[in-house]
Amino acid sequence: MYFSASCLFALVASAAAFAPAPSATRNSGLQMALKDDLANIGKVAAVGALAFGIAQAPAQAITKSQLNELSYLQVKGTGLANRCAEVIGEDTITPKAGARLVDMCIEPKAWAVEEEIGKAGKTEKKFVNSKVMTRQTYTLEGIEGDLSTSGGSIVFSEKEGIDYAPTTVQLPGGERVPFLFTVKDLVAKGNGGSFKPGFQMGGDFTTPSYRTGLFLDPKGRGGTTGYDMAVALPGLQSGEEGDDELFKENNKTFDVTTGRIEMEVNKVNAEESEIGGVFVATQLSDTDMGSKVPKKVLTKGIFYARVE
After folding, report:
1. Rg (CA), the chain
2. Beta strands 153-162 and 122-132: pairing type?
3. What are phi and psi for residue 250, nearest 5 degrees?
4. Which of 34, 54, 111, 265 has the fewest CB atoms inside 10 Å of its own CB, making it the most exposed?
5. Distance between CA atoms of 287 and 217, rounded to whole angstroms?
């Protein structure tokens, strides 16, 4: 009995060593309002509030060099593949002409969805903390792009990589909100010419539709294939007044919206050409190919990248 208990304790301790770092405490920072939709979400104040809660390195922080030393079997099933590497150091890196930002990793740590909350006969929009329902496949990885300068400031233009991840979060009431977490076509402009602690950059990105044109709904309707109407309900789709009820369901659209991300560097390792920091991003959720009104989703977390 004593031997079995000892073995069990050793296994639990071993698994805990590779467990994903716990999310930082989320407070009122997640309940900030979007007064001007996507425009104001990227204010410096938002990044500063995020830095207060997430910038501190977790106890199980692991660097890129340590990750590279692990084999596939050592990573399999531990959650490490969904984590971004941590950076140690507070140096300064000034990109040269033709430099690129490679191996960028963007790992969400907290999510919130904007909801209308009623209180004392009034309704107001607030961000409500939500729980991620997607398995550990929501981190963006291997993102690359060009670095240029404009007015003495660094500009990052995203080009390729695993730059989208279908993700679903759940509100406290049980409603699930799917969205395509992405930074496609991101053009982020910085506030200086060197990467150093306190450097900030941000910009807009493109959010493609959560579903593609080949997706078929339960009634076999799709954007580029499938039926163009619900075959089992012909009486409601005769072109008369009743057709309006199913118009959005029948006419599938590929909605492309705009999101915004703000990033702040808090760690720089000049020897390894690495930078790391925190981010806050906002975008719209899935529209179910035009049949639903999208919700605003707020995502916060950490990022890692290497200057090449």
Report:
1. 22
2. unpaired
3. -80, -35
4. 34
5. 13
Tokens coding 55: 């910038």
pLDDT digits (tens, 9 = 90+) for 143-194: 999 999 998 999 999 999 999 999 999 999 999 999 999 999 999 999 999 9
CA-based end-to-end distance of the chain: 55
Within 10 angstroms of residue 164's Cβ, the number of other Cβ atoms is 16
**87, 50, 52, 144: which is closest to 304 by C-alpha?**
87
Q: Which residues of 66-80 are buried (b: 16+ CB within 10 A; e: fewer)?
A: ebeeeeeeeeeebeb
| Residues β-bridged to residue 195 | 93
pTM comes to 0.77
Read off the tokens for 86.
């941590």
Question: Among candidates 285, 288, 294, which has minimal Cα distance to 223?
Answer: 288
Q: In which element (H, E) is residue 162 found? A: strand 153-162
Amino acid letter, residue 80: L
User: What is the distance between the alpha carbons of residues 259 and 231, in angstroms, rounded to a whole number?
Assistant: 36
